[in-house]
Every structure is written in C-alpha cells, then in structure tokens.
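Notebook entry, structure prediction.
Reason for the run: the old model in the group folder had no record of what sequence produced it. Starting over properly, with the input documented here first.
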Amino acid sequence: MPPPRPAEPAAPEAEQRAEKEPRNETPPQKADLDNASDGACLQRLTQLGLRFEKRPPVKENTCSVDDPVLVSALPGGVAVVPASLMNCPVAESISRWMSEVVAPEAERRFQSAPTKLLIGTSYQCRDQRNGQKLSEHAFGNGLDVMGFEFAKRSALTIGNQTEGSSEATFQENVRKAACPIFNTVLGPGSDSDHGDHLHLDLRQRKGDYRICQ
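New structure, fully documented this time:
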C-alpha cells in the first residue's frame, strides 16, 4: 500500500481570519460618481480661467440644475452679460467655443477681440416653445446668445445680416463651428423662433444625434 498522503499545512492565522471576515467592498454609488464628475468640471473651469460662482442645486417645480454655476466672465476677460446661471458642462463648452472659434474669427474678420458675450436666456424654468416638454433652459443646459461686443468696432447683434458682409460671414462661421461643440445649434434661418439669437445646448439624444441649423 502507498504511504498515507501528508496533511495539508495549516494556513497562517491571519489568512484564516481574513477568509472568515466578510468583505466590505461596496461599489461607488452614483451620487459619489456624479459629485466627483462635478468636482472635476469645476476644477477645469478654474484652470481655464473662467470667473464664476458655484451655486446650490436648483429645484423649481419640475425644473432642476444639479451643478449650477453663475458665470460672469470667460477666458481672455470676455464678460458674460448679464452674468448667467448654467450647468458646469455648458460653462465649459461656451468657454471652448469663445476661445477656439469666436475670438479667432473676430480677429480674422474685424481685427478686433470680443469683449462681451451678450446672453438672452440661460437657466429659465419653462417649456419648449412648442409646449411638448421642458426646454433645455429648464436644466441650465442651454444658452441663447444675442450678440457680441468688441474692442475696436461696434457690437454685432445676431440676426439677418447683409448678404456678403463681414458680419454675415462671421455669424455663419461661428454658428457652424458651434455644431461640433454643442448638441443643438439653432439660429437665423432655422425657424421664426430663432431669428434673433443663437440657441446652444447639450441635450443628449439617442445615437448622439445632433441638430445644427
């Protein structure tokens, strides 16, 4: 007969105790992840050089903004007039649009830097104009841009510009270049409701579908 198999060596006491003790590995909760994301966004706004105030979450009837900021100026000293309440991702996107698109285009067309971004509506608890559902403004997720002021020329108001003019080219170029940055871009020519401003928002749609008109 073969010799008996030797007994298994006893596991160290610490390992035995660890195996018996229940593991406390709670996955991160959604609120924790959201807070971390909000904090990262606020940090990016600071690094970009925006002037803003962090505001408490907004809850007004069915309207809400989870991570509102009151933005008063963008990088380069461009004032936001009036100071506007929006969610953090919109603040980051409007900063990117002004820095990467509007300011370079203004230098090309007008040889002048923008000094003010003129806002019509930012956060506002209301329905869409067709009344079918809440507007993106109701979530601080959209902005209506009415125009711009510049250091060395007169202000430009969004609207029907003279065909072939520098103003028309500027307006069309900044509208088109907003489309990769925002999920919705509506301006003059899209419909009668947007004839005097550019509506920009970050509405999420199935398949990352975007509207650019």
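Summary: Helices lie at 13-20, 30-48, 88-110, 166-178.
The old model has been moved to the deprecated folder.
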